[in-house]
Protein 1
Amino acid sequence: MEEFKQVLRRLYLGSGAEARRFRYALILFDAVTIVFFVSTAHLPHGPWLSGFSLLAGVFILCDFLARLWVAKDKREILFRVYTIADLIVIASLLLEPFMEGNLAFLRVLRGLRLIHSYHLLRDLRRDSRFFRTHEDAVIATINLLVFVFVTSTAVLVFFLDLENTETPYVDSLYFTMATLTTTGFGDITLPTPGGKLFSVFVMVVGVALFVRLAQAIFSPQKVRHKCKECGLVRHDPDAVHCKHCGGLLNIETDGAT
């Protein structure tokens, strides 16, 4: 059993090529399941969809238990916001066949793990020069996309009248983008008090995410390289000396543009 634990620890926490491929495969699984759950959120969940949900829930539960088993600080893992999101998703997937109502929007919370994973970030920084150069913009973009998907699915599940539309997800996405950008065409509205409060939430959070994305795109790009003297990790791509302490830097780069 200890040998099996060491294998899992190497896959989840290691830095070798095999471990990186394993973690990228898990991220790909996350992305595929999120797209599937979002695209089927408005459909009646018969035996096939319920069975797939149950199977995905079991797989994600095994992944969660494996991460917890190999973690050095299990208490810290349990109190992370993304762990709580995972537990909500697992519960919604495993309990859905036995419950009434559509819990599809809860599964999209797993999208938070697509980028907010320490080891994924570490792998991308090592393997992708593009990610190293545009990390802030990539993360801000994914944060915005996750918010749009979660919000659109919540509108689809809780507020949209499915009997009066032939394109339910398109309508929910359209409403989300119109509200998020404060365009407010008004052809699709949420007239209930709860819908109005939800619209306010979308506008406030959406504008903040848009501003963050704009800052990441138009502000001067920085690269991550830890200064050996003071520990500063964000520097200009062509920096030779640390702006904080003046220490000598040795940033790997193909040259500034």
Protein 2
Amino acid sequence: MAEYTLYTNPMSRGQIARWALHEADADYDQVLVDWEDKGDLLRLNPMGKVPTVVHHHGGHDHVITETAAIRHYLAELSAPALLPQTHEKADYFRWLLFAAGPLEQAVVTRAMGWEVPPEREGMAGFGNFDRTIDALDGWLASHDYVCGGRFTMADVYVGSAVDWGLQFGSIPTRGSFEGYAGRFREREAYQASKAIDGELIAQMQAAS
């Protein structure tokens, strides 16, 4: 048995977990989840969401859900070189959780066509879409990666948000985002993981 099992669907955030597994050079098996029949996934994750990762360790199965948590867990257990150094921790956790919170909320809210009234922006974790995008833009305009000049596991999560946002138009095209994407898209782990999911998507489309 491999050390990890990835429950995923290639047309999902499971792509982010696969990229993280490849960055960690982790030994993993995959279980492809059908949206109509989620099978064993519901036992592991009652939300029925992918990605879900199971770590088979020390005679126990440890279930990790939530994409930001999966990334950091893999760094802690299998890729310590991708963890932040002491002086990088503030930036690492700030932007990892910024992407998981305000950025995710802002993008989904915009995609759903919901508008937060200006007088109620204080109740929303992201304030408004433009302010959220400007905050990330301002950081990446002066930093090659989340922690400055070095790629860390936080870049898998933040990078995926930028990657998908540029691909699907859910975030605006800006020089800082394009430059950042250009850097992480050159990584071997990114290319290997995307190739696997791309092939799986092609197979699914051919069978439909």
Protein 3
Amino acid sequence: MQTVTIEGYLAAAPSILSAQGSGRKRASFRVLETARFRRADGQKGERTTGFNCVCFNEATAETYIAPFARKGSRVVVQGHVENDTWTGRDGTVHYDLRVVVDELRLKNRRDDSGAAGEDELPEVGQASGLGPDLDDEIPF
């Protein structure tokens, strides 16, 4: 089994879907990750990759993802890669890779009013008091 860890941003609000037979809920979302690099000629470049993710854990989908995750939320997803195959309406077979989520961590930023979301952990050096106070004058 291939385990992956992806850190990126949600491309859209997650969709919470119910299975037709059992009614169990799952969350489906897309995580975008951007890699920045320098080309051989020295120019900067970037490449954005999208990862389709699905979380089958019903409790996580209902109590964690649905109320707190939104478009633009920063997330860290850990899971395994799975091949997804389906047949389109025109009869064409489509193939895609998806990440089946084992662990998910939301790292939401502060909103414009400065209030932190309920699921946000304080960043080191800001609210936690673990880092240096950058408001002090530099002693040299």
